[in-house]
Amino acid sequence: MSTPVLLLPGWQNSGPAHWQSRWEALYGYQRVEQHDWMQPLRGDWITRLEEVVLAQPSPCVLVAHSLGCLLVSAWAACSRNTHRVQAALLVAPGDAEREELRPVLHSWSPVVIQRLPFASALAGSHNDPYCSLERAQWFAQAWGAQWHDCGHAGHINADSQLGDWPDGHALLQSLLSNKEAHHGH
Predict the structure, then answer these.
(1) Fewest CB within a 10 Å sphere: which of 5, 21, 55, 71?
(2) d(Cα 89, Cα 130) in Å, to the nearest integer?
(3) Per-chain mean pLDDT for the chain
(4) Range of the domain at 22
């Protein structure tokens, strides 16, 4: 039985050229649809993620981009169902505490910082306009995620011209195989 993979886009959702949308089309992964992509409220997004995680037939894997990364940490800090997540791939976390993002992402400050209770990897970029390299590395350390350096890849989104982003998918696969090794399946 294949592991359910849930795609967690960030603020404004992921457009058709975004690797998350391409993965949805290529691999049949499920996008977690949020009620309001433009005015993201942390409590609403957490509730929605909880519903979708509970609806999965078996423990799932989360693949988060930007604000989706903050959603994973906020959800994990308050959910009693974190055992239903095997692992998380966190890509280009958006830093909701940045001055220019605060007005829109007011409900996301302060960012929830505690170690994630499942295996995780964080892919970050040196020139992400929404999160400094230092901050991304700090998030990885604080969340207990394995750091993955994507070089100068901007916000690791459609503008980064990654296409299907095979490197990212390889990272997801390695996260899954490591996860299975830990549990001796």
Answers:
(1) 55
(2) 18
(3) 95
(4) 5-183
